[in-house]
Amino acid sequence: MFPKDISLDTPTVVGVRAIATQPDGKILVGGFFTSAGGRTRRSVVRINPDSTIDTTFNDPGITDYVFYNVASLAVQLDGKILVGGDFRSVNGLARRNLIRLNADGTLDNSFSATVSDTVSSIIVQPDGRILIGGFFNEVEGQTRNRLARLNANGSFDASFNRGSDFPVVFSMVLLPDGKILAPGGNGLARFNKNGTLDASFQSPNVSSINSIVLQPDGKIVIGGGFFNVNGNPRRNIARFNDNGTLDTTFQDSNIAFGSIADVVVQPDGKILIAGDFTPVSGQTDRRYLARLNADGTFDTPFNPLPNNTVYKIILQPDTKILAGGDFREINGITVDFITRLLNGNVTTCNYSINPLERTFPSAGGSNNFTVTTDAGCTWTATSNAAWLTVTSGTPGNGNGMVNYSVDANPDTTSRTATFTIIGQN
C-alpha cells in the first residue's frame, strides 16, 4: 500500500492526459473532460493546492476534438499557458491544435499558430521560442514533420528544420547546451539548435518512445513500448549514457505487458514509471504506476494500486506525486482520474546558492557561484538566457561550484537573467 494525500481531494475530471504545476503551487490539468467540480471546464482546469477549483481561471472552451483533446501543457515565465492537443475550436473561434492562454484562462489573441495534427509535447526555450512535437506534418502551412519551432508570438521559425520521415514525438528534452533529445531516425536522436542531426550522438535503435527524461548526471532514461535496444533485451524502459550508448548497469524491467507512458526521475535517483503496463518484474499486483531503484530494480515498498492506466506523473517540489489518467481508485479509495500521493521514501534535498546575484559591466565577464546541499543530492545548473552560459561545474552531486560567462551587452539598456538549480534561482 502507498498512501493517497488526503489534502488533495480533487474534483472529477475525466480522461486526464496532461498536468503542469505553477510556481504558486496551483495545478493545471488537461484532458477530454467538459466539467470539473460541477463547473463547466472544457479540457483545461486549474486546481488550487488545497484541491478546490480555481474560480479565477476561466473556462478555456476547447472543443471539437478528435482523440486526445488536450495532450500537453507548458507554463511560460510570464504566467501564460501553452496548450497542445487535438482540437479545432476555442470558445467558438477556430484554433487548431495549439493555443496560448492568459494567466486567467482567457485566450491570448496575440499568439497564433496553426498545426496540422496533434501537439503532444511543448518546451519553452530560454529565449522564448517554443519547441513543439507530435503527429503533425505541417506548421503554418510549411512542411515540418513531427518536430518544429515557433517564435514567441506563434509565428513559424524557418531556421529550425530537422527534415522528414521521423517518428511521432510524444516527448523531448532541451539540453543545457541548447541541443534537443527527441525520437528520430530508428530511435532516439540528438539534434543541434537548428534542428540538424547531431552526428556525434550514437543514436540507439529503439522504437515507440513515449517519454524521455534527463538525469542530473547527464544520463538519459526513456520509456515506451519497446522490447529491445540495439538487440539487447530492454522492456519498455532503458537508460543511456550521455553519448547515446546503452547503460548496461541499468537492469531490464521485466515488464511483461503494456507500455510506459511517462517517466520521472526523483532527486534520490529513483525512477517513477506510469502507463498501462501489468505487471512489473513478476509482481502481479504492480500495475499502471510503479517505482524503480536507480539501477532499474523494482522498488518494493512503493505500491499505490491504481485500477487503470496512468498517463501522466509530476513530482512536486515537496516530493509529493501528482498522477493523472483513466483510473478511478488508488489503494481502493475513489479518486476520479487525478490524485496526489505522499512520497515518504524520498530524500528531501535542500539547496542554497551563494552569492544570489551579481552585476557585470557592459563588456560582460565571467565568475562563479557555489551550490550547498547534502551529500547524494544531485543537481544541474541551467540559464534562462542565451548570453549567460554555464562553462563548467554542472551537473553536480553534493556541494559544488558553477563557473559561467556573460556575453557583452550590445544595447544601452540593462538586462537580467537567472540560473536555476533544481527549481531555485
Essential attributes:
Immunoglobulin-like, mainly beta, four-stranded antiparallel β-sheet
Describe this structure in words.
It is a single chain. With 425 residues, the protein is mainly beta. The protein has 2 domains: 16-341, YVTN repeat-like/Quinoprotein amine dehydrogenase (Methylamine Dehydrogenase, Chain H, 7 Propeller); 352-421, Immunoglobulin-like (Sandwich). It is built from no helices and 40 strands. It has strands at residues 16-21, 27-31, 35-36, 39-40, 44-47, 62-63, 69-75, 81-86, 89-90, 93-94, 98-101, 119-124, 130-134, 138-139, 142-143, 147-150, 173-174, 180-184, 187-191, 209-214, 220-224, 228-229, 232-233, 237-240, 260-265, 271-275, 289-292, 310-315, 321-325, 329-330, 333-334, 338-341, 352-354, 365-372, 378-379, 381-383, 388-392, 396-397, 400-406, 419-421. The strands form 15 sheets. The protein has a 4-stranded antiparallel β-sheet with strand order 33-34-39-37, with no helix packed on it. The chain is globular and about 60 Å long.
Low-confidence stretches: 1-12
Number of folding domains?
2
What is the average of the pLDDT values? 88
DSSP strand tally? 40
Instruction: Trace the largest sheet across and list its strands.
Output: 33-34-39-37
Largest sheet: 4 strands, antiparallel
Kindly identify the CATH topology of the largest domain. Answer: Methylamine Dehydrogenase, Chain H
CATH top level class name of the largest domain: Mainly Beta
What shape does the CA trace take?
Answer: globular
Q: In what range is the share of β-strand residues? A: 35-45%
Terminal Cα span: 36 Å
Total DSSP helices: 0
Give me the CATH superfamily of the largest domain. Answer: YVTN repeat-like/Quinoprotein amine dehydrogenase
- The proportion of residues forming helix, as a percent range, comes to under 10%
Q: What is the CATH architecture term of the largest domain?
A: 7 Propeller
What structural class do helix, strand and pairing data support? mainly beta
Radius of gyration: 21 Å
